[in-house]
Structure formats: structure tokens, C-alpha cells
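fwd from M.: "can u put these together and see what the complex looks like"

so here's what she sent:
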Amino acid sequence: MLLSRYLLPVMKETPADAQIVSHQLMLRAGLVRQTAAGIYAWLPLGLRVLDRISAIVRREQDRAGAIELLMPTIQSADLWRQSGRYDAYGPEMLRFQDRGQREMLYGPTNEEMITAIFRDCVRSYRDLPRTLYHIQWKFRDEVRPRFGVMRGREFLMKDAYSFDMDEASGQLSYYTQMLAYLRTFEAMGLRAVPMRAATGPIGGNLSHEFIVLADTGESEVYYDSDYEHLNWNQSAFDYGNAQDLDAFKRMFSHMYAATDETHDLRAWEQVPDERKKNGRGIEVGHIFFFGTKYSAAMGMHVQAKDGSLVTPLMGSYGVGVSRLMGAIIEANHDANGIIWPEAVAPFDIGLINLRPDDAACAAAAHDLQAKLEAAGRSVLHDDRDARGGEKFATMDLIGLPWTVTIGPKGVAARTVEVKRRATGEKQEVSVESLVAGLAKSDTMGAL
RNA sequence: CGGGGAGUGGCGCAGUCUGGUAGCGCAUCUGCUUUGGGAGCAGAGGGUCGCAGGUUCGAAUCCUGUCUCCCCGACCA
């Protein structure tokens, strides 16, 4: 991608409305534009990140056996009357009428809709268990939206729903999602800790929230430092395996983790002092197992093996996809800007041509861009007629993992400067070794 | 929803108290000089001062109403 043909409105100054660093950087780096309180337009660079976060969520959901579908953003009030939540849900729900004066709403969540779909599609125990998910925009008319996309009114959420014949199977679905969540967040370069949570209006008795550790987080968290040493993606737990999931459950159950709301001082005392950690965190996911709350209210039955009618047990599992972008920035930035983890970066490489007016430099830059892209890397090529300093500052601000600089000094020798955003380390490498290194490596780290 | 603050070119702000017809920095455009970490000089474009009423010879400025946004608190992915 040529920057001269892209839309990247970066700002040198910080908009006065933005208070927290992720919000400030998202505005300055041209990722989003606010269009109303808690509502954002996703600019090209921001959309690329959003898509990459979604892709990681989707990949792990698929691995965990969940099935993707897509439900609409607009729902009818009738659906919500079936569960009784139309009246129970407060002014947080955005309600309106269509031209026929039918009462409609913009979905804040989808328990009712998925329950109706599954109820109407499924008759037999043979069709269970199932976990279905979608990644779709939600709207909650929060009293006080704030912190940019961290608490927007409109937000992108992955929500999954499980249907099981019995409690044991339901727990399996629940812990499958929990494991998928831990792997998902880890794959984005985040350290997320699961914490027991109150179930609130969604109901049920088993619930965890997932807190990403970041100094600027909203809630105070207390946790066992053992969490910092776990690697869920390398753990051998198999999603389909009951023994594995049981072992997984025991593994995190014996480690203490709580927010200030659920903090249990007596349990905390049991944690060895050297492992006691506390800090701040951002909630990025929340899972619930609530049994038959919706399936019973909405008349869902499937026929069991013995011919009896059974009301399936359900769980729901949410990830704040758009919020994750804010959380990732909160956890990965410095004074110069964002430092994207490679897994979610909008482009792998920023290619700076210091002298676009110089024919040799321009030819070398376009040639290198083509080679890098042929090697499977996404490249943002800064070919603008601007000075070096501005280009370096822009790249640091938007936080691409690698910056490759081409200038008159290196062009003759066919060398370029490669800089790693996370560490700031730079090295001169030949064009050939750069391209060769990329072709055979998953990450640029091999350089 | 309670409490506080703010709306003036794209961004950051001054001007408001004490009315006299809008200004600064950055950004943008043109030209020249520059070019390895947000350049210099010269010139230019862009704002019915959130909106609606009112007071006045005259309103960004005073009065009334209204909308929007931000912050603190109670609630949430």
C-alpha cells in the first residue's frame, strides 16, 4: 500500500476530548473518528486492526468447535417479550418503531435470538451439543460512554452460545470456551486472567470475566503470579477432551484471581506472599453458564434418546472485539505511539523512502515493496514527498512492528535499515538477506 | 441519572469579565531553498464564533432557551 494513496489522518497534537492513552493514540494514529458519544467510524488503518483481532477470535472459536453464523443487529420486541427481558432490560436498550409502528430494538446481546433460532431448527438430542457464535455490532445506550472504544455505545462483540443436554456436557462447553478465550487473548500479545464474576442480569450461577492486565485499567485486580508463567497456546489441552478440560479447570482453579468486587481476603491469605500480585485490569471478555433460563422461558425442547423432552442448558460467551483494540494499545505503547503486537498490526512493515524525488531511491523502494509483498508481508510504503523526520515519527506513532528505511546512503550498497518498533534496535541489512529472511520465517524476529 | 466543565477554520488554543464586526501555533495549498528523526523563507486558501430567540446603533462577548461533547460517581463486552 502506498501511503500517498491511503487515508491516514495522523495528528501531532492530542485532541482535548481524549483522556486515556489508548483513546488519544487511536485518534492521533488515524484509527478511528468519533461521530457521536460512544460511536466511532473505523478509518482504514483501524479497520485493518479490527479485522485482524476478529480473525484471531474467529480462528480460536473455530478450533474450539464453535460454529459461526451471523444474526442481524435489529431485533423485534416480540422476541424479547418471550424471555421477559423486554421489560426487564432498562433504558440501556435502544428501542424504536419501524414504519408500521412495530416495536424494534438494536440488539444489545443475542440470547433471545439464538435461542429462537436453535429452538426452531433443532428437534433431537443428536443435534446437541452445539456452540454457535457470531461477530456482530451491538448497541447499548450506556449512561456514560467514555474512554474511546473501551466503553462505546456501539461496539463489535463476539458472542457465542452453547446448547447442551445435561450439566456435565454444559460444563464442558463452558470450560472449552474459557480455554479458547485464554488462548485467544494470549495470541494477541495480551495477558488475560480469568476471574470469578457475579452473573448479573444475564442470570445463572457460573461466570468468569477475563481481565487484561494494564496499568491504566479500570478495575483493581488481585492475582497469583503463577498466571504470568502460563502459556495456554502451548499447553496440550484438547478442546474435545473431558479429562483435559478437567485438568485445565483444576489448573486455574487453584490459582487465586479476583477483582476488588469479588476479592476474598481469607482466600488471598492462602496465597504465598511472593506470589501475591495486584494491579489494574480491563475486562475484555465475560462468560456465563445459566442453564435453562432462556431455553425454558422460550419453550425450547429437544427429544432425548429415551423419547422424553429435555430443555437444553445454555451458556453465553462474550468478547469485546472493538474494546480489545483499546486494551491492546493500553498494554503496548510508549511515548512515541502505539507498539502493535505482530499478530494484530495493521501492516507488518512500514517502508520509508527518504527521498521519493530521487529516481534510484524510488526504484529501490518500489522494488522492495513488491518483494516484501510477494513474500507475504503487508507493507505500508511511505512514498510521500515529506522529510525523514516526519516519516519516522508517523511510523512510530502508528506502531507497525518493523520499519524498513531506504535512503541514498544505502541504495548504492543495496542495504536498508531495519528497525524494530518494540525495542528501537536498528540494523543495516542487505536487501537480499531481508527478503530471503522473510520468505522462510513466520515472524520478522528471525532477522 | 446526580455533580462539574466545555463548544471560536482539520487539531490545539487566545479573545468573552470591560460589546466596536475574529486572531495565534500546527496542519493544508503555491513557489524557492532544503532532505537519515515532525525544516527555512515568501505568499495563499479556509471560520454565518454549536443552534434559536432577545437586548443594542452595533453581539464570539450581555440575557433567555436549547442541542452537543468531555470529566467524576452508580452500571456494563
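replying to her w this: Chain A has a mean pLDDT of 92.
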